[in-house]
Amino acid sequence: MFGKDRRKQKVLQEGNQQDASAISQNVDESAEILPRRPFTCVKIPGRGFGMVANRDIKKGELILEEKPILTLAPIDVDNNAGEQHVTVAGIMKQYNMLSRSDQNKIKQLHSVSEPKTILGIIQANSFVRGVISEESVLCIESSRFNHSCRQNVSHGYVAEKDVERIVACRDVKEGEELLTCYAPPFDSYSSRQAVLRCHYGFECDCVVCAAPPEERKQNDKLREQFKMLDKRIPEVGSLNPKEGLGLVADALRILEKLDLQLAPLLEHHYYDGFQLAKGCGQMTRAKLFAKKAAEAVAICEGETTKHKKLLSYSKNPSLHINGT
Ligand SMILES: [Zn+2]
């Protein structure tokens, strides 16, 4: 399911590893990066650095594609518990193999710990590498985008290109800050605040969180309804595609009301809609859902194999074999 939120990797503490020592604060934090892109990295009062649009940006416009500087894969270190962890030693091994210049770029990022440590930086900035992956990636520029529960950019890892991709999910005016969402988008106000406080060390005062309590309550209710539908669609749809299709329509209506504009989520539900419509023999509807799913994938990933596949289904749904 939707997994573009920043999910903290489990990190196993290993006593007095090298990371326990604080990083020197003697780094150049004034350097701006990426001139001539549609954004500029600037200091934001009370929020460290952030990315601000240096011109108007259209919804769907590609903002950034960035190769990870580090890829962190869990290794099995606890046979008794059968759990996998990213170890501090593993992180430091990779970090020490980087050039001095790349190490300095990492040191400039925000850390959840004070004073800064490499571990604290990774915890604050790593992204999940794909929806079901146990790996995570660290990207320098992508990490500079601050949080809002009503984001104007969406980010996601594209395995086919090994890039973190950031796209505008709304029209953005010059001078506006570009904001992504670090919290699970369908959590309630209090759950989102708890995640942000615990993992990132701040309270969110975005336009959704700062709304009057009654409005916030209504917003929470819609998110809860969406979560329930999201769980029921595969259960119901596998037994009764027609009923499942009705639930997909309900879920899409809620997404529209919430106005989250999240292409990965739309892709997921359009694809569900495609499969269910096809299952009901509603081929015209199936073609339309496949077309919309292809459009959402083009925003999330660009013109990848998945995008081409969905476009082919939009012309001929029979090309689709269940489960692919
Ligand atoms: Zn918020």
UniProtKB/TrEMBL annotation:
Cited SMART domains: SET
Could you tell me where the Polar residues compositional bias lies?
14-27
Q: Which residues form the SET domain?
A: 37-183
The record ties this protein, via Pfam families, to: SET (PF00856)
- For region Disordered, the annotated ranges are 1-27
Q: Where is the composition biased (Basic residues)?
A: 1-10
* Name of the protein: SET domain-containing protein
Q: What is the lineage of its organism?
A: Eukaryota, Viridiplantae, Chlorophyta, Pyramimonadophyceae, Pyramimonadales
